[in-house]
Write a structure and sequence with these properties.
67% helix; disordered N terminus; Glycolipid transfer protein, GLTP; 253 residues; mainly alpha; single chain
């Protein structure tokens, strides 16, 4: 399949890109600046964005938009790589809120998202990424964009599993929720050394209340936004998996 360049994408896709760029303004705020940003932004637009979005609601909005695009096309849609990466970049702040236990996962996730974003001008869509590697027999090769996409997908799934465990329990501590989420989504693909380091770091996870404070959420608002993300991610995960399975590429790697 010939590569499709980003300049050919629809006006609607470009409008989503602008929206995600605006959302990303909140990503670089420190925990303290999140609380005071509503009165200290440099311009009126950032004031409005800060008033409406928390890190968690920004992520939920982004993935609901991706999900709507995919479902509208019945999964036969060439999803814009840059738009996907813009949405995924918003998730990095969620990893940061979990502390040292998930530092490796955060670094790996951010690196892979950045690599995909850098390639977006050349490849245009997720489908083109996997098609290129499939034709060159490099889908599973270390450093390939298709492999990077798989790792990003696992990172998104890790956050989803953590949210599901968070909502199904009222534990004050996140060790059990995080350990179970990691074991389900990422541990099977990490080396023994990485798994050992992650599990050792689980004791440094924030408490439930500390996590809510970092996310600038209440129990009620966090539940609402987490459910939105969980539901929106399902079609996105299915779409990514289909890019591989439709080419007879297994997913156990």
């Amino acid at each position: 399949m010939a590569l499709k360049f980003y300049s050919l994408f629809s006006r609607k896709q470009r409008s989503y890109k602008k929206k995600y760029v605006k959302m990303s303004l909140i990503l670089n705020r420190s925990e303290d600046s999140v609380a005071r940003s509503m009165g200290e932004e440099e311009d009126g637009f950032e004031d409005a964005t800060a008033a409406e979005l928390t890190p968690l609601s920004a992520v939920a909005d982004a993935f609901e938009d991706l999900s709507a695009l995919i479902e509208a096309k019945d999964f036969d849609y060439d999803l814009d790589l840059k738009m996907f990466c813009d949405a995924c970049s918003l998730v990095s702040i969620l990893f940061g809120c979990l502390g040292m236990a998930f530092k490796f996962a955060e670094l790996e996730y951010v690196s892979k998202v950045n690599d995909l974003s850098d390639a977006s001008d050349s490849f245009g869509t997720l489908n083109n990424v996997v098609e290129f590697d499939a034709q060159n027999d490099t889908v599973k090769a270390p450093g390939s964009l298709s492999r990077n996409l798989r790792r990003v997908r696992q990172g998104l799934d890790l956050i989803r599993a953590l949210f599901q465990n968070f909502l199904s329990s009222e534990d004050l501590y996140l060790k059990e929720a995080a350990s179970t989420a990691y074991a389900k989504t990422c541990a099977p693909y990490h080396t023994w050394a990485v798994r050992t380091a992650v599990y050792a770091g689980m004791y440094a996870l924030p408490t439930r209340d500390q996590l809510l404070l970092k996310l600038n959420e209440t129990e009620e608002s966090a539940e609402r936004e987490m459910i939105r993300y969980i539901n929106a991610l399902d079609p996105v995960i299915q779409y990514i998996d289909k890019l591989y399975t439709s080419r007879n590429i297994d997913l156990e790697w």
